[in-house]
Amino acid sequence: MPDFNALLNAESFIELGARARVRSLLDEGSMHELLGPFDRVKSPWLQQQGLVTQADDGVVIAKGTIDGQPVVVAAIEGEFQGGSMGEVSGAKIAAALELAAEDNRNGIPRAAILLLETGGVRLQEANLGLAAIADIHAAIVDLRAMRPVIGVIAGTVGCFGGMSIAAGLCSRLIVTRDARIGLNGPQVIEQEAGLDEYDSRDRPFIWSFTGGEQRYASHLADAFCEDSVEAIREQVRLGLADNSATPRSECHEFFLGQLARVGQEQVTPEQVRELYSTLPEELS
């Protein structure tokens, strides 16, 4: 049974903004933000389309330590443009990962933590955002060979589009019950396939397939925890302590093979869990 008193007194991670989430994970006094809001590095494209910009383009990048271990944390602000990735915000994350890899090559064992609350590419920046996301993918694969790249999807935006691929490339992926992960978001599926296929207003149905608990049970996430700063920080600590696990993307043949077994009829959440109940040795 869960300790309900502890849950009531726990500080919610989901209720924090991106900058506060970063600060809550890092050792006290160790946070050093890079390209913060006072540097005024923002999207040059949104204002041209009559959209309000944000001085950090919706991404917080900070160096610091967790239990004394050097890390870089990138947090996406889901409240700004739905956490979407544009040229500047994507470049900030890619550069942070690339510099962390450079630190490792220079003898500084810096890991990375990605706090993912994003709808994917920013439609107003189209190909520029897609190129930035591709750079993020390449940088994750490069860095994870040396140090862990830990993804955290807490809620409430979820992680969709090209950034869901980034989540799948992480060394370790942490989710809460409120998290959602999917290549296409509910409204996109409904728009393309129709209401009979996917009702974006049916929240229990959506979470039963793409929610954090289901993704964890289907082995598409590595850790499932309560929405609290301490619970997520503990899972991050566990991920930093172990870089021996085989990345999920290295087992793509298994996942594709299981997916190929799905027919034309709508599967149930229970059938999805059954499909992925037996894992390859690398992941078990």
UniProtKB/TrEMBL annotation:
<dbReference type="Pfam" id="PF01039">
    <property type="entry name" value="Carboxyl_trans"/>
</dbReference>
<dbReference type="GO" id="GO:0016740">
    <property type="term" value="F:transferase activity"/>
</dbReference>
<dbReference type="GO" id="GO:0003989">
    <property type="term" value="F:acetyl-CoA carboxylase activity"/>
</dbReference>
<dbReference type="InterPro" id="IPR011762">
    <property type="entry name" value="COA_CT_N"/>
</dbReference>
<dbReference type="GO" id="GO:0005975">
    <property type="term" value="P:carbohydrate metabolic process"/>
</dbReference>
<feature type="domain" description="CoA carboxyltransferase N-terminal">
    <location>
        <begin position="1"/>
        <end position="194"/>
    </location>
</feature>
<dbReference type="InterPro" id="IPR034733">
    <property type="entry name" value="AcCoA_carboxyl_beta"/>
</dbReference>
<dbReference type="InterPro" id="IPR029045">
    <property type="entry name" value="ClpP/crotonase-like_dom_sf"/>
</dbReference>
<dbReference type="GO" id="GO:0006633">
    <property type="term" value="P:fatty acid biosynthetic process"/>
</dbReference>
<dbReference type="InterPro" id="IPR017556">
    <property type="entry name" value="Malonate_beta"/>
</dbReference>
<dbReference type="GO" id="GO:2001295">
    <property type="term" value="P:malonyl-CoA biosynthetic process"/>
</dbReference>
<protein>
    <submittedName>
        <fullName>Malonate decarboxylase beta subunit</fullName>
    </submittedName>
</protein>
<dbReference type="GO" id="GO:0016831">
    <property type="term" value="F:carboxy-lyase activity"/>
</dbReference>
<keyword id="KW-0808">Transferase</keyword>
